[in-house]
Amino acid sequence: MRKINILTKSVYNKIAAGEVVDRPYSVVKELVENSLDAGSTQIEIYIENGGKQLIKVIDNGSGIERDDMRAAFFPHATSKIATAEDIESISTLGFRGEALASISAVSVVELTSVTEGNSAHKVKCVDGTVGAVEPAAWDKGTEIIVRDLFYNVPARAKFLNSDKKEESDITNLVTRFILGNSKVSFRYFVDGKLELQSDGGGFDEALAQVYGAKTISKCYKINVEENGVKIYGFIGNQNFFKPNKTYQTTFLNGRYIVNNTISTAINRCYAAYMMKRQYPFYVLHIDVPAEFVDVNVHPNKMDVRLLNAHSVFSLIYSALTAILDGTAGAKDFVTESVRMPEITSTKEQTVMDGIQPPQNFSFTPRPQQDNPFVQHGEPKKYYDPLERELITDFEPTVKKHLIYVSSDVVNNARVEEARERRKFEQQMIDYESFKYKGNLFNTYLMYEVCDTVYIIDQHAAHERLIYDRLREKMSERKIDRQILLEPYLFSVNAQEYEFMENNIRLIRSLGFDLKPFGAYSYRVDEVPVDLQHINVEEFFNELLSDLKGLSDIKLEDMLKDKIAMTACKHAVKGGMDLSDDEINQLFKMLKGNMGLKCPHGRPVCISIDKKDLEKMFKRIV
Questions:
Q1: Which residue(s) pair with 522 in the sheet?
Q2: Which of 17, 85, 109, 312 has its CA 20 to 30 A from that of 278?
Q3: Lowest mean pLDDT, pick from 330-344, 357-371, 602-616
Q4: Share of the chain above pLDDT 70, in %
Q5: Of the given ranges (290-304, 394-408, 526-540), which has the lowest mean pLDDT?
Q6: How far is 265 from 235, CA to CA, in rounded Å?
Q7: pLDDT digit string (tens) for 430-460?
Q8: Would you state the pLDDT for residue 424?
Q9: Cα–Cα distance between 377 and 537 in angstroms, integer?
Q10: How far apart are the C-alpha atoms of 527 and 484, rounded to whole Å?
Q11: Which residues contact 527 (CB under 8 A, 6 or more apart)?
């Protein structure tokens, strides 16, 4: 019996489609690259339901001849190469002739096009079957519509991400097209709404439209050329970093790529300036002779192989190091100052930065103060070292809210606390029987009970007590919020936006008054009162530092770290001379729990038995 089957065209096209078209993002990429290869200067992109229901790309390019329209859907049909030798010097974004064939195998595709001096025509392809070419009404270029992606491959459709996730990846791709093709005008619509737009006015304008005008002022504009390799674009200065890698963009001969050699070279240049969880910002174009690069490594064409990777690495490293270190050679690589767009008001500046205020929003200047929080009256501290900097005789401007914390967060906290209680139950001591015997170095408090000496670290003990009190508030779902004097405004890119939208309810439940504030921007007006001294910018940068790995548990752990820092700041310090009353108060607050640890894991107390002491002094053996 024959065991080898010859697959039909319908089957092998669907299999091949998986290599080229695995998500809506892939379809948009292939179609826009075709538009760019056709010499388009104006491109419009439309998506609905994350691209699953509709993807439409319209351009003003050279168009497709009537006689070529059906052939465009055939596998391995392309106008961009003719012989095997052409692969050695590819100058177009597409060249394999796989895109339309793969897309049409898993969707319904309509193609309308016209070439200069000819009449327009259209053709429809359903399930890989190409229909007849018919007359159409169209002025210039090409329109291609893709509907119901993977409608005939349900096994693949069920593995697609949510509409928001697919949308964010397409949006991120479109920003790369804008940055990589700054002379082309783009208009990008999501579910009927204009989401992104560029006018094709050049690289500086494209960067400002994607990342905001202020970004340019924080960057060096560079231009380096040596041995046939040219590098130009923008790199962040020594103080401008981002919380993740989504702000790093590299184009090789106009093609967006992800290349380890290039990213490693750049990261090494910034190593001396970066702190943990910081990443350099850059948008770089690298041009090399076409014969020096192999783009035929992977179907998605994002991974490339450089013939002389060492030369590219060395040029990037030497140029960027000279610029960042400020050596004499830097003047050869940095172009003249970038002209910033003229801004006539604070409101316009905010819009340019990607933060679009709602209508009728009033920008009212507020006096600059060291304290970023509103307070009424002069605070008068109680003399109580156990509540230093926490207790005052005034009520700050605090909104009392009943915040409903995520049940997962609450349950995680309670499980952890129960586990800790069980762990240290055996170390609970009747504190009424303790006798205070003095302190060492104004840091360690000594108590005797029966034949054991307990030595308590006063800072660790008080830090743990404050920490437990703050955690208790969270677990009881009662969080007071403090109004910020100046709202914190921040912009995000498409991938960060998708993360924020998925987690905004959880973040709000933790006490942050976070709300959308225009396109891809957010505003924070209130923070948890117990964390009012945190750096809000650092908090949200850390939040966005791991877009893929962050979960409810990790977010709650991150908040625990902030609570621990607050507790540490407000606890009595080692070396602080406490009165007898203060020592007694601190000891009573421990309630005899000698097994506690501070939030950072250090023990609150250690004990020494009389027998161990006598062994040290050789009284017994």
A1: 490, 516
A2: 312
A3: 357-371
A4: 72
A5: 394-408
A6: 13
A7: 767 788 999 999 999 999 988 899 999 999 9
A8: 44
A9: 27
A10: 7
A11: 481, 482, 484, 511, 512, 513, 534, 536
Contacts of 239 (CB under 8 A, 6+ apart): 218, 273
Supply the pLDDT for residue 275. Answer: 83
Q: For the chain, give the percent of residues with pLDDT over 90.
A: 38
Alpha-carbon distance of 53 to 107, in angstroms, equals 10
Contact predicate 187/44, CB 8 Å: yes
**Interior/surface letters 510-548, b for 16+ CB within 10 angstroms, e for the rest:** bbbbbeebbebbbbbbbbbbbbbbbebeebbbbbbbebe
341-375 burial code (b ≥16 CB/10 A, e <16): eeeeeeeebbbbbbbbbeeeeeeeeeeeeeebbeb
**Backbone φ and ψ of 5, nearest 5°:** -105, 140
CA angle 272, 276, 281 (to 5 degrees): 70
Cα separation, 145 vs 65, in Å, equals 18
Query: In this predicted model, which residue has the larger pLDDT, 367 or 53?
Result: 53
Element (H, E) at 35: helix 24-37
Strands 282-287 and 248-252: parallel
The CA–CA distances, whole Å, from 614 to 436, 451, 620 equal 21, 11, 6
Q: What residues contact 424, with CB distance under 8 A and at least 6 apart?
A: 593, 594, 595, 596
Q: What is the DSSP letter of 262?
A: H
Q: State the SS3 of 328-392.
A: HHHHHCECCCCCCCCCCCHHHHHHHCCCCCCCCCCCCCCCCCCCCECCCCCCCECCCHHHCCCCE
pLDDT per residue as tens digits for the range 559-616: 677 677 777 877 888 888 888 888 988 888 888 888 888 888 889 999 999 999 999 9
Handedness of CA 195, 200, 201, 204 (dihedral sign): positive
Sign of the alpha-carbon dihedral angle for 441, 445, 448, 453? negative
- Taking the C-alpha atoms of residue 123 and residue 442, their distance in angstroms, rounded to an integer, is 87
Supply φ then ψ for residue 558, to 5 degrees.
-65, -40
Q: What CA–CA distance (Å, rounded) separates 170 from 167?
A: 5
Q: What is the pTM of this model?
A: 0.65
Q: Tell me the two tokens of residue 189.
A: 């619509």
Computed from CA positions of residues 327, 328, 331, 337, in that sequence, does the dihedral angle turn out positive or negative?
positive
The residue type found at 206 is A
Please, are residues 230 and 150 in contact by the beta-carbon 8 Å criterion?
Answer: no
Can you say how many angstroms the Cα of residue 597 is from the centroid of all Cα atoms in its chain? Answer: 34
Q: Is the pLDDT of residue 403 over 90?
A: no
152: nearest Cα among 186, 121, 109: 109
414 touches 475 (CB < 8 A): yes
What's the chain's average pLDDT? 77
Q: In which residue are the tokens 């760019």 written?
A: 36
Helices (H) and strands (E) in the chain, counts: 17, 26
Question: In the structure encoding, which two tokens stand for residue 193, read together?
Answer: 């709404």
